[in-house]
Amino acid sequence: MSMIFKGKTIVFTLFLLTAVLGALFIYFGPKAIETNPGVLHLGIRYSDEFSVDFTRFPKGGPGAVLEIFDAQEQLIARYENLTMGRNLIPISIEQFKNQRYTLKISAPSYESVTIKANNNERVLRPINSQQKLDNLIFEPNLIGIRLRSLNAL
């Protein structure tokens, strides 16, 4: 009888520990992005990624490109071969001063998206919060985007 009680106690303790750690991850997860500046989290998906036609691309997709332009429309950074899923982009102090930027995300055979951002202490924030699109999420240092195929337009 004592073995059953010990087993229940272990299961209950593991369940309680998992619940507490999960709650901490949910609570502190979004705050970690704002308190740890210097990395832009760019999540890329494609509108037709579940189609048969998408299999013409390699495993990570067609390879998206992120171009960052300064206020004078000069290219200051270019990141190529970004894969489907999350990509981490460094935000260095030398390249990014406190000013406005234009971020252009594109991929071959897909519609490119242009976003306006403001840099404050290595945290890229959207300039206009009304700039919400159905295929874009932009929070501080976090961009989630779904690129639409030009063939579907």
The largest beta-sheet arranges its strands as 3-2-5-6-7
If you consult CATH, what is the topology of the largest domain?
Answer: Immunoglobulin-like
Strands, count: 9
Give the percentage of residues in beta strands.
35-45%
Q: Oligomeric status of the shown chains?
A: single chain
Shape: flat
Overall pLDDT score: 82
Task: Describe the protein.
- There is one protein chain.
- This protein is of the alpha+beta class and 153 residues long.
- It folds into two domains: 1-35; 38-147, Immunoglobulins (Immunoglobulin-like, Sandwich).
- 22% of the residues lie in helices and 39% in strands.
- It has one helix at residues 2-35; strands at residues 39-46, 64-69, 75-82, 85-90, 100-107, 110-119, 124-126, 136-139, 142-147.
- It has a five-stranded antiparallel β-sheet with strand order 3-2-5-6-7, with no helix packed on it. Strands 4-1-9-8 form a four-stranded mixed β-sheet, with no helix packed on it.
- The longest helix has 34 residues, at 2-35.
- The protein is flat, with a radius of gyration of 21 Å.
- The protein starts with a helix and ends in a 6-residue tail after the last strand.
Provide a concise account of the structure shown.
This protein is 22% helix and 39% strand. With 153 residues, it is of the alpha+beta class.
Looking at this protein, list some descriptive labels.
2 domains; flat; 4-stranded mixed β-sheet; 153 residues; 5-stranded antiparallel β-sheet; 9 strands; alpha+beta; Immunoglobulin-like
